[in-house]
Specification:
mainly alpha
């Protein structure tokens, strides 16, 4: 085997290994993020079963833990709403089933009519899908069992499960709008970094197949961006229930997150340009593409860290200004278009990191990094907030004690 071929084989094996490790790390990150939520769902189902079994003396309380578990496995930020919807569906189905059963008895058409009426009523009320399904299921159980006591017991179970789910989702582990948004941002950034890693491997190996594969991977980033938009809409509802200063932080982060759409689009365009470029032109892009990939990966793992964002902005600006300097005055060519693509990706990274877009563009044109605007301050952590509240409360108590002693002092002297 010739030396060039052996080197290319080694690079191919290395690329496969990197993609395998990347896939495993993505799976590991997903499991790590979900373990805590799965533990909450497990604990809520267990608590609902214990309450229904030993407090309400239900010998087989299967529906209480089911309701709690289904509610807490909904999307973050929607778990409390999901519990309420489950309860609405159960109430509607029980009501329709009991009315149809009382009117027709246990005739052959009772089941069909109960299911149809419950589905039609839920649809007419423009209910969510989970309400429609639960209404139909509840009406089926009422008619199939034909026992009013079972319907009442099912209602008690539904109330128990929904109540436990609300305690877990709204009191013990309330939704954090910023955490929800950061989680969706991190997933999108990891997907973009994986696509760019494949693109860098394609440049390194001069492999057209890998280049087209990177285009496909970056097109799939759209799914993560759709999830980010859904989380943004959820955060709009959740933010109304948080403190004003935290709501402002969430709004600022949502504005930054909107630039991920542009970053995903610019990375996809860069991959398409690389896939259509010749070997010599694309070979010069390996270092900047690797650099931008590292920046995006670091951002994905440190969205809560101001220093990570600042370093990402600095590194991206450095790459963008270098690319601008190298292509200044050059005639239009594939290399020039690729340089513009790289600069656009770098610009979108800097803007997402928290730098104003106008200042970013001006800094890139001027080649001066001193015009960089530092990222916005991150909110304090939960422990920090608790400590701040305790400190503020102790200060208020000391102030009240001083005012009380000042008022009582003169009266004692007069007596």
């Amino acid at each position: 085997m010739s030396a060039p071929r052996s080197r290319r084989t080694a690079r191919g094996v290395g690329a496969v290994a990197r993609r395998t490790v990347s896939g495993l790390s993505v799976g590991g990150r997903r499991v790590a993020l979900d373990v805590w939520l799965l533990l909450q769902a497990t604990a809520s189902a267990t608590a609902a079963w214990l309450v229904a079994r030993y407090v309400f003396d239900h010998p087989a309380p299967y529906f209480a833990p089911i309701t709690a578990m289904v509610a807490l496995t909904a999307n973050l930020g929607e778990r409390g709403l999901h519990a309420i919807r489950l309860l609405q569906g159960v109430l509607l189905g029980l009501l329709v089933g009991q009315l149809v059963l009382a009117a027709l008895g246990k005739g052959p058409g009772t089941m069909a009519l109960a299911v149809f009426v419950s589905l039609a009523t839920a649809r007419a009320l423009r209910s969510a899908q989970v309400v429609v399904v639960q209404a139909a299921v509840s009406s089926i159980l009422v008619v199939a069992l034909g026992n009013q006591a079972n319907g009442v017991q099912r209602l008690v179970d539904a109330l128990t499960g929904a109540g436990i789910a609300l305690v877990f989702s709204q009191l013990l582990f309330p939704p954090e709008p910023l955490a929800l948004l950061r989680r969706a941002e991190a997933a999108a950034l990891h997907a973009i970094a994986d696509g760019l890693t494949t693109l860098a491997d394609a440049i390194d190996q001069d492999d057209d197949g890998l280049a087209h594969q990177s285009v496909g991977e970056l097109r799939e980033v759209l799914d993560h961006l759709l999830e980010l938009r859904r989380v943004g809409r959820t955060d709009t509802r959740v933010t109304r229930r948080v403190l004003t200063w935290r709501a402002k932080v969430v709004v600022r982060e949502k504005e930054n997150a909107e630039h991920l759409d542009l970053l995903g689009a610019s990375c996809l365009m860069l991959a398409r340009l690389v896939a259509s470029a010749d070997s010599d032109t694309r070979g010069r892009l390996q270092e900047p593409v690797r650099g931008l990939t590292d920046v995006i990966a670091s951002l994905a793992g440190g969205l809560d860290d101001r220093d990570v964002r600042r370093r990402a902005a600095d590194r991206s600006l450095e790459l963008a200004t270098r690319i601008t300097a190298e292509t200044a005055g050059a005639a239009a060519s594939d290399r020039t278009f690729l340089a513009y693509g790289l600069r656009t990706v770098a610009t979108d990274i800097v803007t997402f990191a928290g730098v104003d877009l106008t200042d970013t563009l001006e800094a890139i044109r001027a080649g001066a990094l001193d015009q960089r605007v530092p990222p916005a301050k991150m909110p304090p952590g939960r422990l920090h907030r608790w400590a701040g509240r305790l400190l503020g409360r102790s200060r208020r108590l000391r102030g009240r004690a001083r005012r009380s002693s000042a008022r009582n002092g003169p009266s004692k002297e007069r007596s």
